[in-house]
Amino acid sequence: MSLQFNEIQEAYTRIKKYVPTTPLEESYYLGNQNQRYFFKLESFQRAKSFKIRGALNKMMTLTTEEKERGIGTISSGNHGSSVSYAASILGIKNAKVIVPKNTPQSKIDKIKYFGADVMLMGNSYDEAHALGMTYIEENGLTFIDAYYSDPKIYAGQGTVAIEILEQNPDIDTIVVPIGGGGLITGIAVAAKSIKPDIRIIGVQTEACPAMINSYRDKTFYEEYPSEESICDALIGGIGKLSYEMAKDYVDEFLMVSEESIAKAVSFMAKEEKYIVEAASSTTVAAIMEHREKIGGQNIALVISGGNIDGKLLTSIMAKY
Questions:
Q1: Are the beta carbons of 40 and 20 closer than 8 angstroms?
Q2: 235 Cβ contact list (under 8 Å, min separation 6)
């Protein structure tokens, strides 16, 4: 089980008809004389998340029989809406998305908007995953992996790095949020293949540092308990493929506080004029907390999604 750069290149060719190149916009406020920061705005995707890349890459390789039988997935929101959107593009009528009961309503609404059926199971992502896998198997659906071990999902996510380095070949550092690990693993493999000396920095919330502690403890945490967090997209365990590969490609793993993440959400809205979800704002929070450690001269900050709950955004902006 591994991910090769040629698989990411193939994914890029496969999906680009449907997935627009997202902007790489320079920050107005984060930079200084020595450092320039660029936001890779995956929040501008149609489903407001990078996850359309992996979902579409996988689903475009399904057989006609698999498409007709139907697909199922488990998601904290963004992967689900992307699978729903991909199903609508490809004409897959039987699409089931299982989400935890605490999923923000805004994400549930978006999944339904693109046409998939939403099923609420479990009080956490890990619970939803266990229950959802049983349902998918019992109903003969093709499982669309969110992040666990499917190279086609990882390859799709890695296309973000191809775009970044095409848009600005001078980028020397890419900072990436870590949830299950599919995004950072795909980006790291692609970026290091194109530009071997590029630095890849992964960021986790201190509320759920599953990957950081997996490597610290030399233990694969498929499930991981979380403290209360505004980063619903980063909660739970990590993927098997990411655990096996990320340590060989990622230069630094950093943790940021929930307070810094909230401040970053507010900063992005009030100053940079972008509505981004808390999980995406971990990369901005990392600059606030770890600028010197991150280093670099031309730094890309991956803004992975924009699906923030309206009430949460309002409360954060009122506080910070």
A1: no
A2: 76, 124, 125, 179, 207, 208, 226, 229
CA distances from 289 to 29, 185, 205, 259 (A): 15, 23, 12, 11
Q: What is the DSSP string of 173-242?
A: EEEEE-SSSHHHHHHHHHHHHH-TT-EEEEEEETT--HHHHHHHHT---SS----S-S-GGG-S---HHH
Take residue 261 and report the two structure tokens written for it: 């993440």
Helical (H) or strand (E) element with 119: strand 117-120
The tens digit of pLDDT for each residue in 102-153 reads 887 877 888 999 999 999 999 887 788 899 999 999 999 999 998 889 999 9
What's the CA gap between 83 and 239, in Å, rounded? 18
User: Which structure tokens are listed for 276?
Assistant: 């981004």
DSSP conformation letters of 245-261: HHHHH-SEEEEE-HHHH
- What's the DSSP call for residue 50? T
Pairing between strand 24-26 and 36-41? antiparallel
d(CA 154, CA 30): 30
Query: Do 184 and 178 form a contact (C-beta atoms < 8 A)?
Result: yes
Could you identify the residue written with the tokens 């790095």?
Answer: 161
CA distances from 70 to 90, 139, 152, 160 (A): 12, 9, 18, 28
Q: Which residues of 303-314 are buried (b: 16+ CB within 10 A; e: fewer)?
A: bbbbbbbeebbe
Neighbour tally for 119: CB within 10 Å:
15
pLDDT tens profile 33-53: 999 999 999 999 998 999 999
